[in-house]
Amino acid sequence: MKNYLLPTALFGSITLVSYISPAVALPSVEVQQIAKQSTVQIAKCDIASGAIVQKNANIYTVLTVARAVKKSGCEIVAPDDTSYRVTEVKTFPNNIDLALVSFTSNKNYPVAKLIANSDRVEAGEPIYVSGFLLSSAGSPVFTFVKGDTIANPPNKQQSQSYSLIYSNNTLPGHSGGPVWNDRGEVVAIHGQRDISTKIDRNVGVETGYNLGITINTFTKLATTAGIRGYAPATLATRSKPVDDLIFSALQKESKGDYRGMLADLNQAIFLDSQNARLYYKRGVAKTMLRNRDAIEDYNRAIALKLNDSNVYNNRGYTKSDFGDKKGAIEDFNRSISLDSTNARAYHNRGNAKAALNNPKSALEDFNRAISLDSTFALAYLSRGNLKAILGDNKGKLADLSRAIEIDPNHIEAHENLGLVKAELGDTKGAIESFTRAIALNPKNAANYSNRGIARSKTADEKGAIEDFDRAIALDGSNAKAYANRGLIKAKLGDKKTALLDLKKAANRFKRQGQTASYNRILTEIRRIGSKGKG
């Protein structure tokens, strides 16, 4: 069904709505009304959104992201809730994340007005994202989210042609939805939320930044492909040094280069010392580097009137990371008061409450985070671990399984799933989970040690010893690995090397202050040493 050529005969010329976009800013409620008329839902094959950008007779064309329509069987749900079968999907070459999707209808739906030149969008301008999310009941809900333009660097693009950077608190269903200016014009197609792809899965920090593909990029591609009705904008490139530095910082962030990110933001702040979002973003870099000075940057952003939920969430996370759980909860409360849909703030508050031994309230926060974002793998992981503390191992098993279903490469979820399977007597399943965790991170000694214990329970002594060997090679302080290897060797009759391992384990337990384990190993040493003596 897909091809890369976009023949003129198929799409024809573009028919726009009868209204003319005003030259002055509109109230947000009016922009929302305009957006609702031409925003559609991508259903059946994905949960995504799109914008009607063309009408030719009874054929409508929707602009969305290409990944939303990769699967077959897609339907378009129009603004009046009527569903239509997708008749054609056209993608662009070079892995550009845009697609044109057609459907046929005799009804009259408005066509979105596209901005004439998206390079004119400036940092600080208000911006809106529209799209459809699934409610808890499973029905689509139109949402309209306000934010600000962070940067719009000319002639710079990340992978898949993303370039416009903005602050809106988007959710998965917004993907492919239109990004609007305050004159009711589409300036970009939204595609990536919380764009820091290399951020540790276990860090509860919101980058607060999203990426869209600009209309200028689309019109240039469409013209090259032969679609009539679009002329590429005449570009008068103007230097935007701060925008360029922000773009560079985000590229480095996506690669996990937080020191490089920090250097770029230091330069940007030197050029624009009153830009609150630069301090906020630098705080993110410092948080990722575990630099307590991140709190000062968040404070500065707040002092510059950045009254943003994510600023308080991130400051709270940093406070919690450095032991101030009560101060962290205050920040999470403020974050939630500013945005009651901020799933990460609920999740982080839950972790802080759990650390303060308030499991019931923590569980409520985890439940709320998941109800707000059913794809939040870390929230399932945290809730599962809390359920285990409350004695609900089966509940933990279900939550960890769901976390892995959402994020198959979540290392900690596989590690914890292995532990709970072992506790529930599923030794084979535990070995499978530890093996997966090892494949994802072959340098974690604990996973080899845990798999070794599981293998020993299946009478695979050779495999168990190999795992303990590897655990010790990676971490010579791993007392448990020495202890378990020694016990297996004793079982196999190798008394001499068994005692050497157990003595090493005892020394390490003693140095680590694990008195109970130290005394238990001393008992084993005496027991094994006494064998054969008459």
UniProtKB/TrEMBL annotation:
Q: Which SUPFAM superfamilies match?
A: TPR-like, Trypsin-like serine proteases
Protein name, as recorded: Uncharacterized protein
Task: List the signal peptide residues.
Answer: 1-25
Q: Tell me where the TPR repeats sit in this chain.
A: 309-342, 343-376, 377-410, 411-444, 445-478
What are the GO cellular component annotations?
cell outer membrane
Q: Which organism is it from?
A: Chamaesiphon polymorphus CCALA 037
Gene Ontology biological-process entries: receptor-mediated virion attachment to host cell
Alphabetically sorted, this entry's keywords are: Repeat, Signal, TPR repeat
Question: What Pfam families does UniProt report for this protein, alphabetically?
Answer: TPR_1, TPR_2, TPR_8, Trypsin_2
